[in-house]
Amino acid sequence: MGKKVLVSCRDESCLAYLTSILNGMDVQNKILLDDRDLLLEILERDYPVVIYDLKDDCVNNIKMVKIIKKIRPKIALIVLSGDLSEELGGKVLQEGVAYYGVKPVHAEALVNAVTNALNLQYS
């Protein structure tokens, strides 16, 4: 089996889309739906790549990104969002994420982001 990717997504259509993309890659993925479960999983196991879908209605999006990066500073964090604002995108990128994409993310862009993140983590 391939390298590990942890996915946290609450939107069913996004989850199905991400799963279909990751199933076409040589990765072993685990899906979580809740932020608390995500944090526990990151604390308990070492994942080289995490794909995190920001909650559209949550004002604490940046806090969650900061917490993930604080727990695992070297993790390759790929962040997806339905928010089109440049302000949020800029704030997320300032936290040192590997990739920030606005949904719907093009499949090729996501494959490239995951591949690049895994290559960096395992090089």
Protein model, in words:
- This protein is about 45% helix and about 20% strand.
- The protein is α/β, with parallel strands linked by helices and about 120 residues long.
- It has one domain (about 5-120): Rossmann fold, CATH 3.40.50.
- A 5-stranded parallel beta sheet has the order 2-1-3-4-5, with helices on both faces.
- Helix 2 (about 35-45) packs parallel to helix 3 (about 60-70).
- The model has no long low-confidence stretch (mean pLDDT about 90).
CATH topology: Rossmann fold
Strand order of the largest sheet: 2-1-3-4-5
Which residues form runs of ≥5 with pLDDT under 50? none
So what's the CATH class?
Answer: Alpha Beta
* Count of DSSP strands: 5
What's the shape?
A: globular
Average pLDDT figure: 90
Order of helices and strands: EHEHEHEHEH
Number of helices: 5
Main β-sheet description: 5 strands, parallel
Summarize the structure.
This protein is an alpha/beta fold and 123 residues long.
Topology summary:
Blueprint lengths: L2 E6 L3 H12 L3 E6 L2 H10 L4 E5 L7 H11 L4 E6 L4 H9 L4 E4 L4 H15 L2
Parallel strand pairs: 1-2, 1-3, 3-4, 4-5
Helix pairs in contact: 2-3
